[in-house]
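for ur thesis appendix - Chromosome partitioning protein ParA. copy paste whatever u need, i formatted it the way the template wanted (i think)
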Amino acid sequence: MQTLALYNLKGGVGKSAAAVNLAYLAAADGYSTLLWDLDPQAAATWYFDIKTEDGKTKKVVEGNTPIGRLAKPTPYDNLGVIPADFSSRYLDIMLKKVVPPREALKRLLKPFGEQYSLIVLDCAPSISHLADNVFTAADLVLAPVVPTFLSLRALEQVQEYFKQEGYENSALRPFYSMADRRRGLHRDLLENRPKSMARSLETVVPYSSTVERMGEHRAPIPAFAPSDDAALIAYAELWLETKKLLKF
Ligand SMILES: Nc1ncnc2c1ncn2[C@@H]1O[C@H](COP(=O)(O)OP(=O)(O)O)[C@@H](O)[C@H]1O
Ligand SMILES: [Mg+2]
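the 3d part is after this line
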């Protein structure tokens, strides 16, 4: 089992869009995939139109029910989702029970190895105890970066934090997201990649109204867009690049 996190300290950069589309593409590629929505904003949960049952999550926290029961099916083969309701309200309590505290999420994920080849973590934009757990659990952390100075600065802060805390720098890989070549600054930053983007993936996810329309369809892009759609092509390339970086 491999664990992929979509993370950046900055919000609104395309983490959830990438998590949802990559999880769908991985599942369609034959990898049994579980997307875990760790952000209380619950964007990924919303895109998959997942309903939650409150009683069940309480039982998991109390230790009476295995965590695997929280995974909900999606309309798509090979793809399950743990909705944000559980993650945001109860995960903190569970994380605090484990020693060493940064390994709690990794341990929670372990039993999923029997059923899933890939776990995709859609993260909240914060550096928190949960983020430390994500960095410990993830084999690969993909950070979407909009080609702007503020977005690059957020990436640099995360890179600095990785260094400071001793996380594997090679596990953190940025990629450009919401790139709009009509804008001069975007073009400049795409063509002359700053040092912080030295390890970036080659795929650039373009600014695209198709991504915005995921909210209208409540579905990943490949489920509704034509095969020549630019965003669909970009996410497909992103999945191929990501797959090579994971150890299947
Ligand atoms: N490539 C893109 N092109 C256009 N809009 C995008 C793109 N990626 C994301 N968006 C839009 O930007 C907003 C934030 O995206 P989201 O994936 O939720 O970011 P994050 O999870 O980093 O907060 C959403 O409204 C989404 O539809
Ligand atoms: Mg999000």
